[in-house]
């Protein structure tokens, strides 16, 4: 059943921008496809920022249990980078407002370096050409 409001952990604001159809499993990809379609095509889309597992994690094979990811050592660090960059707290936002904040942050410096500082050691960073995809959206 579709959740009423999409919950996103902070670093998934980056992933939903750079996503290009690849992921950890078929179930993950199908869930991510529907989340990304809603966020990219509905200008009024709202998201609830959560500092924990979210609507993307719910279909991920790396989710151990509610609130716990197998890669917590890394993903919590990515989340912290986005929280600090965008001055986030846990509440409901307009997705477009968050993307505007993200654009301002990345484009007020060397965007590639700013992105790399947050999540440059993610396995998808180069595999998915995240910076190229994010830049192309601007
Ligand atoms: S790898 Fe971890 S943070 Fe990323 S979607 Fe899966 S459970 Fe969530």
Explain this structure:
By secondary structure, the protein is mainly alpha-helical. It has one domain (6-131). The chain is built from seven helices and five strands. It has helices spanning 12-18, 26-41, 72-86, 95-107, 111-119, 124-127, 130-136, and strands at 6-8, 46-49, 63-65, 68-69, 92-94. Helix 1 (12-18) packs across helix 7 (130-136). The longest helix has 16 residues, at 26-41. It is globular and about 35 Å long. The termini are far apart. The model has no long low-confidence stretch (mean pLDDT 93). The protein binds iron/sulfur cluster. Iron/sulfur cluster binds next to loops.
In short:
The chain has 138 residues and is mainly α. 51% of the residues lie in helices and 11% in strands. The protein has helices at 12-18, 26-41, 72-86, 95-107, 111-119, 124-127, 130-136; strands at residues 6-8, 46-49, 63-65, 68-69, 92-94.
């Amino acid at each position: 059943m579709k959740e009423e409001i999409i919950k996103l952990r902070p670093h998934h604001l980056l992933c939903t921008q750079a996503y290009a159809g690849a992921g950890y499993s078929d179930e993950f990809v199908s869930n991510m496809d529907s989340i990304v379609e809603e966020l990219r095509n509905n200008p009024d889309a709202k998201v609830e920022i959560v500092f924990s597992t979210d609507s993307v994690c719910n279909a991920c094979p790396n989710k151990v249990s509610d609130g716990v990811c197998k890669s917590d050592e890394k993903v919590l660090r990515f989340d912290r980078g986005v929280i600090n960059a965008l001055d986030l707290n846990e509440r409901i936002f307009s997705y477009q407002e968050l993307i505007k904040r993200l654009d301002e942050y990345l484009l007020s410096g060397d965007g590639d370096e700013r992105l790399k500082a947050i999540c440059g050691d993610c396995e998808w960073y180069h595999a998915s050409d995240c910076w190229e995809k994010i830049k192309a959206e601007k």
